[in-house]
Specification:
The chain has 180 residues and is mostly helical. The protein has 7 helices and no strands. Its main location: membrane.
Length: 180
């Protein structure tokens, strides 16, 4: 089961990194620069759903060798506080409670993560950092070689050339619209 879930997660990860990233950029103007959605969220969602499906039928007799108070001494080697797995899995008496808690787990984690991200974003907006132009230079943070300035100048001239090319393209598009 785990190999299949891993295979599905890996396939979804690769596919989403290619297609979902572009769709998010086009539809919502969200740039997923490090692949958080495609590389983490999508495979985690697949594993979460598989976990719910796998745990749903388990209960009383299926709890295995760790069930009951007679296994508490052995459990302390695995679980440092001597908790039974039935306690850890919250009412694992075969009533399906574990699957319900598993189903609630991801939305709760998403809410906590989104709230934390929103708070961090709000704090970061208040912090004044270096200007955007200076953030693309290592020289404000590190000691750099003498010829580093030459590298920066080459990059700036490449950026200027790209800007001029873009301006020319816009001008040509405007001229074409005017001719139509």
């Amino acid at each position: 089961g785990g190999v299949v879930v891993g295979f599905l997660g890996g396939g979804a990860c690769s596919t989403c990194h290619h297609y979902l990233r572009r769709w998010l950029e086009q539809k919502f103007m969200i740039t997923d620069t490090v692949g958080v959605v495609s590389l983490h969220f999508v495979p985690a969602t697949i594993a979460w759903a598989a976990g719910i499906v796998k745990i749903a039928p388990y209960g009383g007799p299926e709890r295995g060798k760790w069930a009951g108070l007679d296994a508490a001494a052995a459990q302390t080697r695995t679980l440092p506080f001597g908790l039974e797995y039935s306690v850890v899995f919250m009412h694992g008496e075969g009533t399906g409670d574990t699957a319900k808690y598993q189903a609630i787990l991801m939305p709760v984690c998403m809410c906590v993560g989104l709230a934390g991200g929103a708070l961090t974003g709000a704090i970061m907006k208040k912090i004044k950092g270096p200007s955007v132009a200076r953030t693309f230079s290592d020289s404000i943070f590190w000691k750099v070689p003498e010829d580093f300035k030459l590298t920066e100048d080459i990059q700036k001239s490449d950026e200027r050339a790209a800007q001029m090319k873009q301006q020319k393209k816009r001008r040509d598009e405007r001229m074409m619209q005017g001719a139509v």
